[in-house]
């Protein structure tokens, strides 16, 4: 096996790996940028995390199915599970995935990350997770991969074939024991789309949904339920979550306090960058209040995340009051800015 590396870029969104993995492929191609800025407007979160003990999340929402599963127009997607792969001998797995990479497919492999020495979960409890492979070197017996490392930083790393095999072997055992469901392994090939200009109508629809606290994205593919909140309503559940954290509510499931604030910052950063793109492309005129307003919200969201990181190291008794203040400010300021953006987009159609 010779060495092959497929092109990847530093993904613009990293809060959840489904965005980081897929966007690290598409963002390497300039022609995908209008599609990117036509999307990633809506937010969602789960509402019943205290009632059922599920892990709270806040995330971008682009409809269903999951982003890994056939939901990106630039990625030709294939998927397999461990049942399909059960007859592949363990020592044949590196060659099999190297062959897919050589044929132009990025691989997102479901395995036990606790067997990977660079992972935060290394040699701890089993951690079923997806690993992104974009290259290999057959002489050095390594894969080029992307993941969150033991320090929590998303970066490109090198995974030895031996560790990869250990992680697959452990995942097989975990599935046999019923420890987790099989979340499938995915293969992506970048397929240049036909011309995809910025979609004003799609952006307008998502902005309205965000403001109206609802969603109409891909509704033909699923039945809506009452378990998710959308758009501006997310702030209510963020406040509910951090109230529960402050009171040490025993109903809270697994916690990831910083990630929620990181995703919130990514959303504001994405909105600010989209406005800059629209102005630069001449799609909307420059509006000082709109541009500077979202830049200011973005800076405050980033500062809030960083303050919480410091709070986890050394308690800040004002942290939860600061969270409440910022959520209230964002809830008050965002609708005014988004209504202005809507008027500018509607005037450009």
Please summarize what this structure is:
The chain has helices at residues 17-26, 33-38, 49-52, 93-102, 161-176, 200-212, 234-246, 257-280, 288-313, 319-347; strands at 4-5, 43-46, 58-60, 75-80, 105-112, 128-137, 142-148, 154-160, 185-190, 228-230.
Distance between the termini: 53 Å
What can be said about the biggest beta sheet? 7 strands, antiparallel
Category by helix and strand content: alpha+beta
Q: Output the helix-strand order.
A: EHHEHEEHEEEEHEHEHHHH
Q: Enumerate how many helices there are, as a single number.
A: 10
Helix content: 40-55%
Descriptors:
single chain; 349 residues; alpha+beta; seven-stranded antiparallel β-sheet; three-stranded antiparallel β-sheet; 43% helix
Describe this structure in words.
Helix 7 (234-246) packs antiparallel against helix 10 and helix 9 (288-313) runs antiparallel to helix 10 (319-347). It is built from ten helices and ten strands. Strands 1, 4, 5, 6, 7, 8 and 9 form a seven-stranded antiparallel sheet that branches. It has helices at residues 17-26, 33-38, 49-52, 93-102, 161-176, 200-212, 234-246, 257-280, 288-313, 319-347, and strands at 4-5, 43-46, 58-60, 75-80, 105-112, 128-137, 142-148, 154-160, 185-190, 228-230. The longest helix has 29 residues, at 319-347. Strand 7 and strand 8 form a beta hairpin. The chain has 349 residues and is α+β, with helices and mostly antiparallel strands.
């Amino acid at each position: 096996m010779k060495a092959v590396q497929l092109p990847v870029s530093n993904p613009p969104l990293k809060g959840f790996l489904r965005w980081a993995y897929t966007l690290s492929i598409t963002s390497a191609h300039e022609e995908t940028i209008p599609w990117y800025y036509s999307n990633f407007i809506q937010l969602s979160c789960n509402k019943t995390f205290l009632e059922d003990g599920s892990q709270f999340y806040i995330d971008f929402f682009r409809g269903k199915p999951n982003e890994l599963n056939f939901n990106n127009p630039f990625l030709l997607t294939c998927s397999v599970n461990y049942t399909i792969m059960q007859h592949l001998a363990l020592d044949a797995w590196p060659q099999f995935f190297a062959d897919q990479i050589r044929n132009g497919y990025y691989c997102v492999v479901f395995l036990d990350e606790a067997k990977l020495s660079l992972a935060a979960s290394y040699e701890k409890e089993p951690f079923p997770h997806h690993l992104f492979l974009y290259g290999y070197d057959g002489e050095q017996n390594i894969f080029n991969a992307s993941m969150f490392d033991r320090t929590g930083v998303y970066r490109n790393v090198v995974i030895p074939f031996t560790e990869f095999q250990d992680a697959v072997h452990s995942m097989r055992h975990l599935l046999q024991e019923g420890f987790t469901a099989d979340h499938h392994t995915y293969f992506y090939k970048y397929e240049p789309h036909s011309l995809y200009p910025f979609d004003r109508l799609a952006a307008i629809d998502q902005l309205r949904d965000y403001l109206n606290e609802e969603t109409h994205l891909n509704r033909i593919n699923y039945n809506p339920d009452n378990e998710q909140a959308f758009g501006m309503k997310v702030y209510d559940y963020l406040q509910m979550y951090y109230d529960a954290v402050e009171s040490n509510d025993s109903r809270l499931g697994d916690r990831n306090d910083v990630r929620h604030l990181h995703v919130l910052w990514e959303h504001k950063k994405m909105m600010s960058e989209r406005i800059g793109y629209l102005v630069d492309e001449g799609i909307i005129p420059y509006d000082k209040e709109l541009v500077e307003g979202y830049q200011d919200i973005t800076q405050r969201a980033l500062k809030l995340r960083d303050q919480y990181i410091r709070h986890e190291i050394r308690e800040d008794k004002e942290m939860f009051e600061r969270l409440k203040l910022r959520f209230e400010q964002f809830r008050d300021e965002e609708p005014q800015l988004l209504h202005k953006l809507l008027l500018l987009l509607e005037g450009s159609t």
